[in-house]
Amino acid sequence: MDFEDIPFEEIIRKEKIAKSLEIRKNTESEKKNVNGSYKSCKESEKNDEVDQKLKKYGRITSKNSPMEVSSRRPTLPEKLENERNYIRNKHQGLKKGNDPRFNDSCGKLNTDLFHKSYNFLDEMRQKEFNQIKNTLDLYKIMTKSKELGTWNKVKKSSKFKNSDVNHLTQDQIDDLKLKYQKLVSEKDHRKNLYLRQQAISQHRKQEQAKIESGKKPFFLKQKDINMSIQHDKYKNLNKKQISMLEQKINRKNVSKFKPPASHRKI
């Protein structure tokens, strides 16, 4: 039978049947693949559960085994944990140590003996003070020379060769400045305390001698103590420091001065 003898409708019908068979085969193969992947997914999930149990308990447990209680403590949320740590650290910083050497039960505090025995601390502070001052002075010279353009000549001097000022950062310089100011204020405070103690002890000695002769005791007021401290400070000043102090006092007096009402500008 030739191809020409087959009717056109029969050819179309056979092509449709062939297409439907191909589609059916493809769907069956896809179903098989899906079932296989689903089974593999289930197996992988089971394996993951087993691994988790092994990590948690160290062995595979069955569903009928009794429940094991964990020894882990319940943890707070991050925000509450941070707040608790902040409060704890805040109260820890308020604790102050107690040195028995400065307690009244250990006897009276002899300041002269204390200064003699702990004189090495003042020497250490003075050494540190001088070192910081020298570094800051060198830093000032370095900055000025860089501005003027003479840094290449200045850096060859022995001062800069023996120092590490070139390698210091701005943050380190700021820290040194703060430390220097702190040391200066501590030094002034110790000096004021020393002058105060000297003024009081000297006055007591004088009063004790007068009391023995029959005079009534007289105790210094706070104003008198401050005046004596200022007097002692003024004695130890240089000419330059005295002139600077006088200028400061004059500026203060000028700012305080108020002209009479008739001369005021309206």
Structure description:
There is one protein chain. Helix 7 packs across helix 8. The chain is mainly alpha-helical and 266 residues long. Among the domains are: 110 residues; 32 residues. The N and C termini lie far apart (133 Å). It is elongated.
Number of strand segments: 0
Percent strand equals under 5%
Question: Could you report the average pLDDT, rounded to the nearest whole number?
Answer: 76
Helix content: 55-70%
Count of helices? 9
**Radius of gyration over C-alpha positions, nearest whole angstrom:** 46 Å
**How is the biggest beta sheet arranged?**
none
Sequence stretches where pLDDT stays below 50 over 5 or more residues? none
Q: Class by helix and strand content? A: mainly alpha
Distance between the termini: 133 Å
From N to C, what is the helix and strand string? HHHHHHHHH
Shape: elongated
Protein name: rRNA biogenesis protein RRP36
Family: Belongs to the RRP36 family.
InterPro entries: RRP36
GO cellular component, one term: nucleolus
SSE diagram, text form:
Layout: H1 8-57, H2 78-93, H3 111-117, H4 119-148, H5 151-154, H6 158-161, H7 170-212, H8 222-235, H9 239-256
